[in-house]
């Protein structure tokens, strides 16, 4: 009777030891929400940091990312005509870069890009536009030994129509006509109307956003990242 009891006790001790020695089950990991096709798009960057690096844009096509933010000027006889600003470049305007130049910006001319000692400008034409001739817009500045360039926030280096080819044709039509429609998300609206000017919240996709489209004010209300109300300029 003693031997079976000892064996049973030994088996019990061994099982307890095995249970305590076994690795604890890993806690269940929360499943990450799948990213959307829109979120999977990463616009290409060039990290331009010098005039020499900016020369890589010569002969290239770019599209305006900073819509209705940057002024552009006539470029005649190898000079930037700062005295006759032509307005601001529309969102996704296609530009054919011809050259990268430097020029001293007059103190009485305001641009989004600081003046520095000299501004660095992209000289371009606008394919498909009714405007002929060459133009220039600032992409950076030089100040002593320092320089600052904004190309990656000013331009897309690939055609946005291809990058976001999965957007419906109706959405792209509104974007190309620079107007917002109910149902568009914030990114699509920014493509149409440019950078937001004012908002009542930092909660992207759930807020009211004001846009200034070349002096014309649009007000768009977003709920769950869909425009539920669009107030167009009268």
Q: How does this model look, in words?
A:
The chain has helices at residues 2-21, 51-54, 151-154, 160-163, 169-176, 186-193; strands spanning 61-64, 73-76, 79-80, 94-103, 118-125, 135-143, 146-149, 155-156, 196-199, 207-213, 216-223, 226-231. It has 234 residues and is α+β, with helices and mostly antiparallel strands. It folds into two domains: 51-156, no CATH class; 168-231, 2-Layer Sandwich (Beta-lactamase Inhibitory Protein, Chain:B, domain 1). Strands 1, 2, 3, 4, 5, 6, 7 and 8 form an eight-stranded antiparallel sheet that branches. It has a four-stranded antiparallel sheet with strand order 9-10-11-12. A hairpin with a 7-residue loop joins β9 (196-199) and β10. The chain is globular and about 65 Å long. It starts with a helix and ends with a strand. 24% of the residues are buried.
Q: Structural class of the secondary structure composition?
A: alpha+beta
Domain count = 2
Hey, roughly how much beta strand do the residues contain? 25-35%
The number of helical segments is 6
Count of strand segments: 12
Main beta sheet strand tally, sense and closure = 8 strands, antiparallel
Q: Order of helices and strands, N to C?
A: HHEEEEEEEHEHHHEEEE
How much helical structure, as a percent, in the residues? 10-25%
How would you state the average pLDDT, rounded? 89
Unreliable residue stretches: 5-11
Taken from the alpha-carbon principal axes, the silhouette is: globular
The gyration radius over C-alpha positions equals 29 Å
- How far the N terminus sits from the C terminus, by CA atoms, comes to 101 Å
